[in-house]
Amino acid sequence: MSKITARHVFTSESVSEGHPDKVCDQISDAVLDACLAADPQSRVACETLVTTDLVVLSGEITSHTRVNWEALARDVIREIGYNDAEIGFSADSCKVMVCIHPQSPDISQGVTADARSAKEQGAGDQGMMFGYASDETPELMPAPILYAHAIMRRLAELRHSDPKTYWYLRPDAKSQLSVLYEKGRPVRVETVVVSHQHAPTVDEATLRTLVADVTREVVPASLLHNDVCYYVNPTGRFVVGGPAGDTGLTGRKIIVDTYGGVGCHGGGAFSGKDPSKVDRSAAYMCRYVAKNLVAAGLARKCEVQVAYAIGVAKPLSVNVDTFGTGKVAEERIQALLQPGEIFDLRPAAIIAGLGLKEPMKNGWSYRQTAAYGHFGREQFPWERTDKAEALRQALKG
Questions:
Q1: CA distances for 309 relative to 303, 317, 339, angstroms
Q2: Which residues, in sequence order, are CB contacts of 185 under 8 Å at separation 6+?
Q3: Taking a C-beta distance cutoff of 8 angstroms, is the pair 142, 319 a contact?
Q4: Does the structure show a pLDDT above 80 at 6?
Q5: Long-range contacts, stretch 339-343, CB < 8 angstroms, 24+ apart
Q6: CA nearest to 232, candidates 157, 169, 162
Q7: Exposure on the CB side of residue 20, measured as CA atoms within 13 A
Q8: Partners of 173 in the beta sheet?
Q9: pTM recorded for the entire structure
Q10: Angstrom distance (rounded) from CA 388 to CA 384
Q11: Are the CB atoms for 107 and 277 separated by under 8 Å?
Q12: Percentage of the chain surpassing pLDDT 70?
């Protein structure tokens, strides 16, 4: 959606915490949280696979702490709601394989600061990362992905908080929202798709009513109308789901994790990676920059791209695109993304500025990011708009 067109429909999807890929993301990020809680200098690159009755934990971890990986994985699965062996995957009955080894010394030497030689912490890998913001919602997120997440999150809340009423809901689910735009602004929801794993005895009408009720609860009334088209479990049945129905892997839902297909994506996944990996930390920083630029009123839409070389601290390139909505020249904005100005895009500065090594001390966790999107929720530090006034002052005139 790089250009504003007169009239178009844009669609984004979300998945629930019980989706197989999201089960993996949450386990991998729970591993990261456990390592950082005891050793903030931990280096973590944890990958998880789940399938019928099996969890495989793999990756590279260097940490001074000891964690019971198997117990941790089972706890995550249990909290998601996979507690019944009859549905093909259960916290207490699944097998857990652990295949973890230390980080490569070749990578470590490139991303570890050395005070004796004045060597600065470099990027944990090469690549490009993007951040995006738009004033079309109060959260400065694209409407389709924001409200697709909201539907999934509310259904999960009902399943957890009132299991007697919603006995028929099982953990795996997907949503999809199609929104009509006119002159770059969302004006109405055209279609809502929800596929939700369920008990075999529930009737279709019950599920359809629930989805419609939840949609009206979480989507602004200004975007709804009497002709919204609902597709609820369009195949007619979704009993076999979760890891028993589909193998899951860490890092496969990168569009769900970000902006729902709006803007660009560098291709790197987030979950299971400590903040020395710029795939994660720089993507968070780019969102922080883009959101503050929009919050400052300098553009209605903004995308920030940054690129790195492994082991090198200074970004290779920085680009700002305001899609023709900017109030000042993009070159002036880019000048503020250099070290010593309002934002510092070097890895060590990103980590320190956003508090990425000790999240739990600041009231959030990486596991929280691993379902319902990494962006658009105020508990995360990259969602602050505390630089907006400084940007306005710096760019006056």
A1: 21, 10, 17
A2: 136
A3: no
A4: no
A5: 339/314, 341/394, 342/387, 342/390, 342/391, 342/394, 343/285, 343/288, 343/289, 343/387
A6: 169
A7: 20
A8: 196
A9: 0.93
A10: 9
A11: no
A12: 94
Strand partners, 318: 306
Give the lowest-confidence range in 5-14, 164-173, 192-201. 5-14
CB-based contacts of 181, cutoff 8 Å, min separation 6: 1, 5, 7, 8, 9, 10, 187
Pick the closest to residue 307 from 49, 135, 119, 129 (CA basis): 129
Q: Is 29 exposed, middle or buried (0-12, 13-18, 19+ CB in 10 A)?
A: buried
DSSP 316: S
- Secondary structure of 217-274 as H, E, C letters: HHCCHHHCCCCCEEEECCCCCCCCCHHHCCCEECCCCHHHHCCCCCCCCCCCCCCCEC
Closest CA to 28 of 40, 53, 45: 45
- The CA–CA distances, whole Å, from 127 to 60, 153, 250, 315 equal 20, 31, 19, 10
Residue 292's nearest CA partner among 385, 393, 394, 374 is 385
Query: Mapping DSSP to helix (H, G, I), strand (E, B) and coil, where does residue 11 land?
Result: strand
Q: What is the DSSP string of 32-65?
A: HHHHHHH-TT-EEEEEEEEETTEEEEEEEEE-SS
State the Cα–Cα distance between residues 290 and 299, nearest whole angstrom. Answer: 9
Query: Tokens for 363?
Result: 């009231």
- Calculate the alpha carbon distances from 202 to 34, 179, 198, 237 in Å: 39, 30, 7, 10
CB-side exposure of 51: number of CA atoms within 13 Å? 4
β 229-232/7-15 pair status: unpaired
Residues 313-371 pLDDT 10s: 999 999 999 999 999 888 888 888 877 679 999 999 999 999 999 999 989 999 999 99
Q: Exposure pattern of 333-365 as b/e (b: 16+ CB <10 Å)?
A: beebbeeeebbbbbbbbbbebbebbebeeeebb
